[in-house]
Amino acid sequence: MEQNGLPISILLSSANQHDSTKFIDVIENISTHLDETAIEQIVQCYADKGYDAKYIREYLKSRNIADCIPHRNYKTRCNETNNQNNYNKTRYVVERFFAWLKCGFRKMAIRYERISENYESLINIASFLMYCRVLG
């Protein structure tokens, strides 16, 4: 997601896989859609507790991206540079995208498509229409 809540990279996976297993694939997929200067401008990554894994934090650190991922043990929320209020505002942007998908595009509310290519195409069309609404 970018700061307006518009998707940059979308990957489909099976329902029995946790989202955190595809985190690195999504970040790597961003490079196919953005140029190098835009990729260098990515300085922070916000995610929920489900993405609290050592390999994710190490990957972001190797790419010089600051992470704001709450720890699962509730003792430490985010890095010292980011407060919890900023984290909640940023997470709302991601949740708003999913609300747009489910409310604005009726076919996305429940996945009726069995063929993943068709479903991914519907998501891409919905994303394109969201871009037109926000940017145009």
UniProtKB/TrEMBL annotation:
GO molecular function: DNA binding; methionyl-tRNA formyltransferase activity; transposase activity
GO biological process: DNA transposition
PANTHER family to which the protein is assigned, alphabetical: BLR1914 PROTEIN, PHP DOMAIN PROTEIN
Transposase IS4-like domain boundaries: 3-125
Coiled-coil stretches: none
Species: Marine Group I thaumarchaeote SCGC AAA799-E16
Keywords, in A-Z order: Transferase
Protein name as annotated: Methionyl-tRNA formyltransferase protein
Enzyme Commission identifier(s): 2.1.2.9
Enzyme class: transferase
UniProt superkingdom: Archaea
